């Protein structure tokens, strides 16, 4: 069953997120899973400690616009402890705790965002020998986000790097051009093949729908561009996993229905036919099946852990399984009792479709 359709009606882009998703704590069973797969470490600094700032100043971009990030101001006697702790966290994230990689690095700035669900801190760390810098993020540990990150690791072509300690989640920076910036400034670059961009959006749309990764508006993913010997290759990568299997509206998990993605939808409708859309969807399903088979034990362990968690209101589960039953014409969805059941059935559907 196709989701994104070429040469059809343009989506209205009226999908709304019902409400701000609450933070779900990580329970012991998930902590055990994370420890088994080397995602859990003891951190020298917690998220709560970073929240102990006395004041902040807004961060503006190069054009003088408010970025919605703030630079927190810490008491002078806390700065050394915080910076040293952040350097050690970076070493844990990048080199399993080998502090030699931070010998010549310093914390250049700390930014805080009160806008996102997990209220992240963005850390910029700089190598003083050559001024090369990197970013990483310290966030509130949210079970929904952790499940989203793990499903991304298992079912997508992308690798994600994160660690957890109690109430603290640390994530590696995902490099790329923000999707909204790319669509406004770079999409019409004559050196870029619009068919390749449209193809990637179709695959991304299909992957999100199967994984139940919601709210993929253009500022919640990045475009990665790789020069090939005769062309440019594109990959869309999600950077926000807060809305993993929470909402009840099926369209929330389909990026094509967000108005912020209209440029990508229009590109697909202009350059792809119905047949090619179906071909790219089938390619993505086949890739997912291949990954699921390789990581079947890890996926089963994640399923067993999430099966007993209530990460979405019962009314959202009821609405989503009803909509998916109609969409796939599969009454088995009515038997699902959790979002985990729904994703498992999605995967089984994909396996059946690939075999046809």
TrEMBL record:
<protein>
    <submittedName>
        <fullName>Uncharacterized protein</fullName>
    </submittedName>
</protein>
